[in-house]
Amino acid sequence: MAKILILGGGFGGLIVAERLASSIDSTHDITVVAPSRKFTFYPGLVHLAFGQCSADDITFDLATKLKGVGVRYIEGEMIELDSSGKKAMIAGDDISGEIHYDFLVVAIGRRLATGRVPGFFEYSNHLLGTGAALKFGKAASNFDRGKIIVGLCPGARLPVPVCETAFALAKRFEKQIAGGEVHLSVVFPESLQSAFGGASLHKELESAFARHHINVLYDFPISEITPEHLISSQKNKIEYDLLMLVPPFRGNAQLRREGIVDAEDFVLVDDRMKISGLESSYAVGDIVAFSGPKFAHMAVRQAEVAAANLISEINSSQPETTYYHEIATVIDAGGPDSIYLHYGIWDDSMYRLKKGTLWGWAKEAHDRWWKLRNR
Ligand SMILES: Cc1cc2nc3c(=O)[nH]c(=O)nc-3n(C[C@H](O)[C@H](O)[C@H](O)COP(=O)(O)OP(=O)(O)OC[C@H]3O[C@@H](n4cnc5c(N)ncnc54)[C@H](O)[C@@H]3O)c2cc1C
Questions:
Q1: DSSP per-residue codes, 209-220
Q2: Is the pLDDT reported for residue 373 higher than 90?
Q3: Ligand 1 close to Cβ of residue 104 (< 6 A)
Q4: Does 42 sit in the ligand 1 pocket, CB within 6 Å?
């Protein structure tokens, strides 16, 4: 019997748990540890902010879901990993102590490095949770004139919700923007191409922004926020009245001692999702040190690869399934400007871009499918 410990119950952790539970016999022990019982479907947070769904529509109880597939859930947080002793130190309500494992999957997502941008916490809205999305939605509802800025801080690896928020605000304030009472801008630390991992979708996205009267500002690495201004590292200033920014991301400093992380504390893995230098250990999702933006569909595909390789190891075979790093995403502009992008980050000859209302509907249908599968 193998003991499999999965740290994290987001997209990556859940998919690994489900795939293992359906493929190995029940004599093996699968445990998921995560600090919150609530699974949040993050791609739905822009809709939540704009009142198009409720918090219940985009969350579900992780413990119930896991129990249904025969996986144990423990409410707790990994505070230390000891890979040589094959154990993780957990702090939480269900357990405070060590959990031993034979196989490990690290799927703990990103952490937010809001401290790197002084003023972020005090003055900016963000969308990194249901509470934050509802707070931003309320601020947008109470807004009637002035300058709105949405954007990415340096090191924020999430361009899609920034673009989708800009399109949603353009729709909400269509009349006020036309009348000059509201000005809407979107800010990127470098180019659009670098925000999207090298994909050159700037022509299509810029023309969509222009049609919705959204100004785009590039090369503005936000380094500080005051009550009235965004300040860049070159000391340029932009005035704002309402802000929604994605903060910088970082990995997990608790893993540093193991020597398995890069300079930003993201976990180093090979193309089989095995943690470099550690036996029988995998990492998937936002915590992984791959380049470019971070997406749920990447976490899901990495989880499928890790699960396939883990199953091979459990069956004493070589783990041979490999992962390919690519973007496949929809930017929902709420109409004909919606964009589908498929781009190979490891091979830029793979590039497909399509536009049309259909892609917004496809994303909605996919979101609905995710909600239903977890009911
Ligand atoms: C507003 C928003 C919109 C987005 N839109 C899209 C989109 O349109 N398309 C798309 O593909 N992606 C989108 N994403 C990105 C996507 O949500 C992430 O890439 C995805 O959630 C990553 O999955 P994950 O499992 O790696 O991490 P998460 O989903 O963040 O899960 C991490 C899990 O680890 C747990 N955890 C954290 N620390 C510990 C610890 N120390 N010990 C144990 N457990 C721990 C957490 O509680 C959680 O259960 C969006 C994200 C946001 C925030």
A1: HHHTTEEEE-S-
A2: no
A3: no
A4: yes
